[in-house]
Amino acid sequence: MRNANRRFVLRARPEGLAGPEHFAEEPAAIRAPGPGEVLLETLYVSVDPAMRVWISENPGYVPRIEIGDVMRAGGIARVVESRAPGLAPGDLVQARTGWQSHPTLPASEVQAVPAGAGEPTDWLGVLGTTGLTAYFGIRAVAAVRPGETVLVSGAAGGVGQIAAQVARIEACRVVGIAGGPDKCAWLTGELGLHAAIDYKAEPDLAAAIARECPGGIDAFFDNVGGATLDAALANLKLRARVAICGRISQTAAGELYGVRQMGQLIGKRARVEGFIVTDFHERFGEGRIWLSAQVASGALRHRVHVLDGLEQAPMGLSMLFRGENMGKLVVRVAP
Amino acid sequence: MRNANRRFVLRARPEGLAGPEHFAEEPAAIRAPGPGEVLLETLYVSVDPAMRVWISENPGYVPRIEIGDVMRAGGIARVVESRAPGLAPGDLVQARTGWQSHPTLPASEVQAVPAGAGEPTDWLGVLGTTGLTAYFGIRAVAAVRPGETVLVSGAAGGVGQIAAQVARIEACRVVGIAGGPDKCAWLTGELGLHAAIDYKAEPDLAAAIARECPGGIDAFFDNVGGATLDAALANLKLRARVAICGRISQTAAGELYGVRQMGQLIGKRARVEGFIVTDFHERFGEGRIWLSAQVASGALRHRVHVLDGLEQAPMGLSMLFRGENMGKLVVRVAP
Hints:
2 copies of one chain form a homodimer. With 335 residues, chain A is of the alpha/beta class. Chain A folds into 2 domains: 4-125 and 303-332, Alpha-Beta Complex (Quinone Oxidoreductase, Chain A, domain 1); 129-278, Rossmann fold, CATH 3.40.50. Chain A is built from 10 helices and 17 strands. In chain A, strand 16 (304-308), helix 10 (313-321) and strand 17 form a beta-alpha-beta unit. The longest helix of chain A has 14 residues, at 284-297. The radius of gyration of chain A is 20 Å and the shape is globular. The relative contact order of chain A is 0.16. The A-B interface holds A 59-61, 225, 229, 244-247, 250, 256-276, 279 and B 59-61, 225, 229, 244-247, 250, 256-276, 279.
């Protein structure tokens, strides 16, 4: 088993959606750690919408992944061999493992996971950048206040499920948008949202938002962009805040959707703001404490959608853009 | 001359541009002031892009003007007769006179103009809501800092000319967008802007902005909206701020332009925010002191485009949307 490092590298840049045809399995020899390095065995890797941006020609805010490079990804791993103080074989760590089974990394890029702190996958989801994105987007960017009406798009996705609940725990009235009756039932049932809108069943999304948010939206956490953003802008309240986390409808779109409701921002004195979770790096500790406390109390629930086997990762990426995941998507690499 | 109050009332709601066909001259008897009221003789009235919004079916943020109502407008007037303490015949005042020659108003809605404080038209322009809109838009909403690159659209218009100079006085590098070589020469010559872009001569506005703002835009003060906003979004710097003051290209448009570059907000962590000057009502004193000081020192220049005769006001409104004004447009009602 430890004879080879199983790796998935970028084979070709996609034009539209990314899928298995854009990646190739390229095993390599396991590299023994040098001084200050650790050899890891990856347990889980993350599959995120942002990956489609990372493999594009010009991602803008992060270095692009070159053809032949191992696919970049957050992961949870066990230390197999260590030449660094403070990390010992068997330790559970989080690191940017990439889509590979046995990465060798500098110890400075590896972070120990506290013992007994939730499931390993929590560190890719609710306690990882996924949860932190939701926390800072809702609390710092959208700056929600108790009693406000908050709309979340992609509410059954990895970030959306947490964002909706952060707002609910902050005593907001929360409405989620998701695709299909199963996701919507889960949002209002298990996650305790006040209402859910099945966008696939609504011929007029703006009208559906108006129906579920009578009086309008104080804050909108947007993962989808395009027509969803337009429909939300048409329903803003005075001094509304829109936090743009992502725009999965546009990431791989051939022609970009044109947003027509920008004029609403004037009369409503509203704000639209984009953000990236790493901007809040210095406050990650605060975010993790809050999220851990809510998970521990049972107030914050989350769902992890697990695919089995590293070979599933490229297909998982395409699932995200077809809305086939429910909750945070991860791939189990080792048992 | 004082036998009738010359008035222009709304005759019909426009579909597209507003012009003379949407207003009617309807003289009325001059009404003697009751207790607490003053009779005014209007000297100048304002003509503003926002008026096109006020006469639409659903202006949103202000009460609409009904068919048969006198057109709402800021004005400068002299007191003719007063039944209110503190206001005497001959006093120069500013008030919402509307497009009429002899309004009778409650004294509480009339504000004395300080003696010797500039030209009467200054109180409709640089020291009025026009100047205050520019001041708060640049300083409070766009929150510019010395050394930043600031783009202003509609830069040769009433608000734009002041906004560009507020940014220039704040030691920013200022680029204005205007239509035609005369306006552009005036912006870089008389007003001291660092560069001007003639949008009528540029086949690709985004490329022109990139050329004049190498490295991108820190702040954008937008009066135009639509394709101009899209071109600016494509040129944002990290943490850029866009202050949406107006969108004259869209106010009377049949079909709204779709803004395609919203995704820039994520990677650039940028903010787009709409505002209305009355939101800053409590800080108007601060704004007027600053603007007065800059006018007095000669740092802040402004141009008033004067039309002669109240009957020119409806035509003036259509001029704004054809870009035929240079500077703040006012109508001289009495000599």
